[in-house]
Amino acid sequence: MRIANRSVEGPIANDPKLVAIFCVCTSQDFISAVASVSVLTPGFIFAGAFQDYVTADKRPQFPQSMKGASSCIALVDFDRDPELASETVKKLGQIFYKRICMIAVGSELTSTVLLRAVRAGCMEYLTKPLVIADFTASLVRFKSSMMSNIQVQSSTGRVLAFFGAKGGVGTTTLAVHLASHLVQQHHRKTLIIDHKHQLGHVALYLGLKDTQYHFDELLRNVDRLDVDLLNGYAIQHSSGLVVIASPDISTKYYECKQDEIERVMEFLRSEYDFILIDSSVEYEDTKMSIIEQADDVYLISTPDVASLRDLARLVEHISLSPSADGKLSIVINRSTANDSITADQIKKVIRFPVSNTVPNNYIELLRSINQGCPVSPARQSEFNLAIKKWVSEITGERGIDTSEVTPKPKPKKRLSLWNWKLVGDDHA
Q1: Which of 167, 256, 335, 386 meets the CB 3.0–4.6 Å disulfide criterion with 219?
Q2: Which stretches in the chain have pLDDT values below 50?
Q3: Which pLDDT score, from 0 to 100, does residue 71 have?
Q4: pTM summary value
């Protein structure tokens, strides 16, 4: 499947206020006419043209101009193959959930073809050759209808993804406490997803039992996804936090498709202010899909040589992906004033800045895990101050002075391994 040369990329294409227009299986003359009108109409861009129908077996790579747009308009030609055109309309409706308008295009749109187009999801139809006045009027109607949805579009939820550099660095603990603060301190509608294919700990840390349904099952049923189905899979914690748990037994690994994650995230964004995903870098088939869908990606590590070695490799690997550009943040957990490796040393070795450090609070956190009750956001501690600061950065609200979070580290003798690495970097 190929996309025509007439496509827009760059800063203008990534403007979320623009409506992206694209064609499917239309002639070059039709494409040129659509592109000309798009350029002359404020608020719209021409994003490209697909030369094949979009089906379950043939799904193209959509450019950022379509993914980043506030909404899209697809002009689908029904002349070549009405059946595949109808399937394309349905498929595009799933991919661009609630943010696409489909227009049927044809030389002779009979009542039978029109009925098929409407049933598939088309809202309007245009005849060929394209009448500029008719198409311009369609854009005006579409823009007018979209004005009523501006508030909905502006309140689209944010997806935060969490990955541990290795097991045991406290990724789940941090994700659970961030989610608790978002709900209890900032009153944000928040969902936390335990994206572990088996034996995840989110529900355990929250004291939730009888977790009957899980995220993999939600992915399997994406074609039936609606509010009722979502409510059937989610669990409500007493704090107001909503949880989609991991299986608490060993289960078969589900190999999901990229568009399944994309469609589920699109739906969840419309239902929640924040969606937190506690995932794992071991899931190669879904790791990059989650990173692509996330607004922010947090790599969690502890200040020890083994974790930081793995962190450095992950940063090098993930930062090379265009989908991670501008999203990646490093968080050092269990930091103490006695750490032999400082944040500056870590930055120098991994060649990436450390965004947040969270003080060690092992005893209290272990007690909270065993009791199935997160540390209360109201409790005064250095750990909570760090979490509050982090959440304030996420929400954009007033933050906390970083000097309150972690005591100033005292100079310590460096580990020989790190001393050697730093010297090597100095001479690089």
Answers
A1: 256
A2: 1-14, 150-155, 399-428
A3: 87
A4: 0.62
Name the token pair of 301.
Answer: 């590590």
Distance of CA 379 to the CA centre of its chain: 31
Tell me how far the alpha carbon of residue 148 is from its chain's centroid.
25
pLDDT at 234: 93
Give the whole-angstrom CA distance, residue 134 versus residue 148. Answer: 22
Residue 351 tokens, joined: 């060649």
- Angle of CA points 84, 88, 94, to nearest 5°: 145
- Measured from the Cβ of residue 353, the count of other Cβ atoms closer than 10 Å reads 12
The two tokens of residue 364 are: 């209290």
Q: Which of 96, 94, 78 is nearest to 86 (CA)?
A: 78
Name the 3-class secondary structure at 414: coil
> CA–CA separation, 16 vs 274, rounded Å?
19
Asked if 163 contacts 297 with a C-beta cutoff of 8 angstroms, the reply is: yes
CA distances from 69 to 48, 63, 264, 336, 357 (A): 13, 10, 18, 44, 35
Task: Quote the Cα angle for 315-317-320, to 5°.
Answer: 100
- Report phi then psi at 223, rounded to 5: -65, -20
Q: What pLDDT digit, counting tens, does each position of 261-279 carry?
A: 988 998 999 899 999 999 9
Domains of the chain: 19-152 (3.40.50.2300), 156-426 (3.40.50.300)
CB 126 within 8 A of CB 103: yes
Residue 66 token pair: 């379509």
The per-residue pLDDT for 110 is 83
Q: What is the distance, to the nearest Å, from the Cα of residue 226 to the centroid of all Cα atoms in its chain? A: 19
